[in-house]
């Protein structure tokens, strides 16, 4: 039964032609759906399904499964072969599964008799898929839930215990199994989710009609590939209510725009700061809004901040490689900073792959004795890819060849493919909740700035992305001293400048242990700091409203677990700690610098034009 407020919200969200008409609160039939409305909605649903089927059968519709499906089948097939090669172990595994289900049958029988029974398999504390009370109170749905958990954990054990497969294959199998089990969760289907059943009956099926309409819209937006919306994009506009820290674009070339931000203090640190964001996504994650903006906070502390805004590349940039991004990006930006401020040296900060590029630039400068960066801040950055996390499952020779072939057709990798890869790292958080909410509940997602940024994907030039995949993820050449840029072999041990190296504890992209191992590759002092949360929230954690603390532990040596065990935890944001580190490197101050007022005139206000180009 729905409340008046719920019915009012449902009517407002439904198209005029969708019949909701739930029974009134005083009606004797209030517990029953309106069968006339349900019948009409069912007719509209069938009609919409017909349209979707017709669209799929059109010649331009995608044909055949994507290459990732074939890779998943091959990988999980190797695990199956491992078990089938030993009948005794296979029998033991089957027996273990049967025993767990027998125990579950017994527990369910007790519940059907009205008795209490402890769960055979309980969800993890942070698993919100089964939060609705009916998942535990109703024996039918409780059996479905526990059966799913038993089967899922049994399958995970099979991958973990499989003999005769290498660790890369095991890692891929774990990743692909997680995709399969997340997809097959009973929480994703109307018939097996009590909350969805209640919701659909309360709305007489109108939610399914709205959901299918949104599905059709998302399919059209993806050009035939489903692009699941995660937020309402209408509430955001870059330059209006996102990326609004005042500043000027003071330089532009084929690869980047350089933004100089306007000071808010009378004096500023003499040494300017250059930010090198990732080109895999857009720089304004560091400037989402005034309350969350790391850039605004830095400006308010008296830093002269410059930030690179990478171009969203197309076929014209196909041959732009890692060296191009270094020379036409970082090195050219340092020249521009010097022209704007008169300074020959800068502090630099790199985020994610922007930090990897910054580390490469440091190694080149160290090898050529061209010292221009005097301290470096690396945010969730990998330079040693030994423990590179789940993205490494996409980086073997066969898969890289497939990516290179795809990029060869257009000159770039589509932004949506990279965005999908990131979403697959956390499917239970970033994929299936939105599928259920949008297409079954029929609810449009709410406006959320972080998810708007997440959906604002960028393309990647073929030459650059191929170099990155091969030299970093596949061959780990930077850490091994085998990377060559501009005929210079790079050795991070020659990098003697101070490095602030931030990792985040729950990072799936640049795992904390990977960043810790990378810290040992530098030849100078490294301050390794571990922040709470993950790749984004751990970095964007403003002091005004800190959600997580951070850990510091002195020199980087030994094992990560030992370092963490001895580290000191500090509540609140790591930003002030970093500022003290920056000030210790170069405390001198000078009068504030006005962007666009010197040797580099303004080319337009921040955030510039490149960041507004959507894929």
Automatic annotation (TrEMBL):
<dbReference type="InterPro" id="IPR010941">
    <property type="entry name" value="PhaC_N"/>
</dbReference>
<dbReference type="InterPro" id="IPR010963">
    <property type="entry name" value="PHA_synth_I"/>
</dbReference>
<keyword id="KW-0012">Acyltransferase</keyword>
<keyword id="KW-0963">Cytoplasm</keyword>
<feature type="region of interest" description="Disordered">
    <location>
        <begin position="1"/>
        <end position="31"/>
    </location>
</feature>
<dbReference type="Pfam" id="PF00561">
    <property type="entry name" value="Abhydrolase_1"/>
</dbReference>
<feature type="domain" description="Poly-beta-hydroxybutyrate polymerase N-terminal">
    <location>
        <begin position="126"/>
        <end position="298"/>
    </location>
</feature>
<dbReference type="InterPro" id="IPR029058">
    <property type="entry name" value="AB_hydrolase_fold"/>
</dbReference>
<feature type="domain" description="AB hydrolase-1">
    <location>
        <begin position="300"/>
        <end position="540"/>
    </location>
</feature>
<dbReference type="GO" id="GO:0016746">
    <property type="term" value="F:acyltransferase activity"/>
</dbReference>
<keyword id="KW-0808">Transferase</keyword>
<dbReference type="InterPro" id="IPR051321">
    <property type="entry name" value="PHA/PHB_synthase"/>
</dbReference>
<dbReference type="Pfam" id="PF07167">
    <property type="entry name" value="PhaC_N"/>
</dbReference>
<protein>
    <submittedName>
        <fullName>Polyhydroxyalkanoate synthase</fullName>
        <ecNumber>2.3.1.-</ecNumber>
    </submittedName>
</protein>
<dbReference type="InterPro" id="IPR000073">
    <property type="entry name" value="AB_hydrolase_1"/>
</dbReference>
